[in-house]
Amino acid sequence: MSAGSGRRITPKSVDQLRDVVAACDRTREAVAIEGGNTLRGMGLPPARADVTVVTTALDAVLEHEYRDLTCAVQAGITLASLAESLAARGQYVPIDAPFARKATVGGTLAAGWLGPRRHLLGRARDYVIGSHVVLADGTLAKAGGMVVKNVSGYDMSKLYVGSFGTLGTLVRVNFKTLPLPQRRRAFVAKLPEGTRSRAIAQIAELAIAPAAAFCVEGYRKAIDGEDGTDGRLFVLLEGSSTLIERATRDLRSALGKAGVPETTILDAGAREAFERVLDATVACISDRSVTYHALGSPESIAVRSIAMRDLAHRHELFTDVLADVMNGDTILRVSRRDARAFSASVEIFDDELHAIEPRATIVAGDSPVRSSLLVWGQLPSGLAKMREIKARFDPNRTLNPGRFVGGI
Amino acid sequence: MIAERLIEAVGAEAVKTAPEDLAVYAFDAYTQSETLPSAVVLPASTRDVAAIVKIAAACGEPIVARGAGTGLCGGAVPTGGGIVMSFARMNRLLELDVRNRRARVQPGLINLELSKQIASTGLFYAPDPASQKSSTLGGNIGTNAGGPHCLSYGVTVNHVVGLEVVDERGEVFTSDVDDAGYDLTGVLVGSEGTLGIVTSAWVRLLRLPESVRVWLAAFPDVESACEAVSAIVGSGILPTALEIMDSVILGAVEAAFHAGYPTDAGAVLLIESAGFTDEMNAREAEIRAIVRAQGALSWRAAATQAERDALWAGRKGAAGATGRIAPNYYTQDVCVPRTRLPEALRAVERSARAHGIAVGNVFHAGDGNLHPLMLYDKRDRRQVAGVVEAGNEILQTCIDLGGTISGEHGIGHEKRAGMNLIYSTDDLAAMARVRDVFDPKRMLNPEKIFPAGAKCGEPL
Ligand SMILES: Cc1cc2nc3c(=O)[nH]c(=O)nc-3n(C[C@H](O)[C@H](O)[C@H](O)COP(=O)(O)OP(=O)(O)OC[C@H]3O[C@@H](n4cnc5c(N)ncnc54)[C@H](O)[C@@H]3O)c2cc1C
Ligand SMILES: Cc1cc2nc3c(=O)[nH]c(=O)nc-3n(C[C@H](O)[C@H](O)[C@H](O)COP(=O)(O)OP(=O)(O)OC[C@H]3O[C@@H](n4cnc5c(N)ncnc54)[C@H](O)[C@@H]3O)c2cc1C
Question: Are residues A231 and A269 in the same domain?
């Protein structure tokens, strides 16, 4: 069974969505909630899905008080539409998801944002100042408001963000926004194996922290489509013109010290280049790949990403690696030419990987082998509390049953 | 007797039961409880905390966690008796990870103490409530404290990355923002001791900025200062702090601190911008031009670190300084969308005047977070009643303007009734479901946050 089976309903209004969910809850039909469906490869599909509720018709911008730096949108709006609407007033919300033209605000938040700019700008959850959620019984629960500081009761939005639709369906989200950076500049450089860890160390020392920095191996389309065994370095700078000029000088000299030969500057195409890197994070090779996301630390990224890669090689898996230098995350895609051989290798690899990276989760992959892997990594200490939360919010297990950690 | 069991578990020096000792723990910076706690315990470790909770649970005594007691809404006050757990002895910095910019702290560590202890590393802890010289990180986590610099750095929850928590049964669990699963950290921060007792926390540290500038603009009145705030923010500039003080406050602050604030202005706007040296001159010029266009009377740049510190000392000591004008003050804490500040301030003025109460305003203008300080004498019953009534009117006005009943101090005991003004029964029931998970028997800080008699099956 998978999400998407059964009836599909695309409610045109919040009330209609409430009625559908409440009716399913009464008749004990399971509901799968779907936004842009770009993340179906993350975690496990719902164990049952009698009805799929698609949120994409709830896509309005409800408010944008630009002088308050706040906005309110319906949750089915795509990230690209949100960005476009805010950009008209020179603002944005720093959410960096793959496939922004398809991915919805609700789906992205429900999946829990872990974007590359978070070391500088914080997480998507830090920008949510209020939300409306339709609970399993059809109740509409509001949290927070349109003010940027609010400590009136529990911050319920924090619970809904990152809950994978297992507690309720986000229908409205209020954000605080930021002024858009004046300028963006991307750097791309070849990164011979011997220079990699030195480059990472140098970048960590930069006074002006880049907005994002990746060491990329494989994922050829993500950077420049060129062949060759060398890795690539991708760095994104954001800020005022003055700042970018200084950061450029600093970066060049730092990379020079690391022995990185030459860098290419992208000004006009910086954003598109960044988006290609983001899209790569969930790109699959038909049903013969699985992508892991392991959270680490900036200090250990150089060593850990290599250790993960080498382990995969020992299991005869092909690898593509995105090492997020600023946050310390590793994105590792493993694949093989033959689907059956792939399943066999990856099952053993998965065990050994979790021995060194207990928290690695699976974020993409269409292979049926996924269901026998540790898709959420090590179970969290608070799992018992999480199970109780699910039981209180969705006693009939109507919403995305089995989609989340520990079978929640 | 519960005291004996507590002494047996954690030692006599950690348990207080003498009435004169208990009385010290019956109030916070605003509320005085009529009931004394049945005991005060000062755990020295997580294990102590767990043992105390188990004993309390066995004896049916609720637990009230307490930091420094600087709270302004009765959050740490044992309104229904029970055991007060003070974290005065759990006040250490446990681990410092400079490279990954994180620190693990005990809840009793004083906010400013953390930044002092790590100053030599070039890092700092951003949330800076004006009470930071005395308030604790545990209390800051309890209330999700804000502060002047939260405009660009964010509030406490944006800086807490993991917690160790003792639950209502005395079991220890941890949460980490990077864990798979629900974001327990995000919900626990700001839960005012009603969902669990925080025994340690991992917090995020930031690099000290390369350059910091502080500017002071004087205005004829508070409204024009507020308009300047909206104009700065609306133009795409986000300074690190935008704070306003009105003439009542300025008089008191200058008398107490001689910080260099003008006493003839209707209001001042204190602006701080942090960033890179190269950008600062341009930023100053931009902000100065906006401020001038909004009718500023004068502009001053703090030339030295000492001048900056003096201005900030005045700002952070503003509430205390009003002691020179009136024996008591009550700070209302409300937040409105920033562009509604002028209307909110007019309403504050109207309400205070109608009830014959003097009022001064010192507030986090950039966030739309108002703090009208109502000045009164608590020995005068008429004044006390006036303060309460004016306070309620101000709450209602701010709600009508699209605001909320607390921006940073919390709901605690004092503002519980207000929760019904901003949330529907369904909204509150969703919160109560969370409470039901973490504290089904209401043994953790009862009579807080939820309105009295709130339903959902069980007493809150
Ligand atoms: C490697 C990797 C890196 C990522 N990096 C980033 C990043 O940098 N920044 C970032 O923001 N995101 C990132 N993401 C996650 C991002 O959230 C998704 O790519 C996408 O934005 C999800 O949107 P969608 O509409 O396609 O969701 P879907 O795939 O349709 O849904 C995702 C989940 O959310 C649930 N859901 C959908 N809509 C709702 C709703 N309205 N209410 C409640 N639940 C709902 C679904 O049931 C499903 O469980 C990353 C993901 C991966 C795999
Ligand atoms: C002069 C003055 C200025 C102030 N300025 C600001 C300001 O700028 N910004 C701001 O946000 N606040 C401000 N406050 C309010 C107050 O300082 C904050 O609410 C602060 O966070 C309280 O910290 P505390 O250590 O005193 O906690 P307490 O008052 O002792 O407790 C506060 C709450 O936290 C809970 N708590 C304490 N420790 C724990 C723990 N270990 N685990 C779980 N819960 C716990 C308590 O039960 C209580 O509900 C100010 C107060 C004063 C008097």
Answer: yes
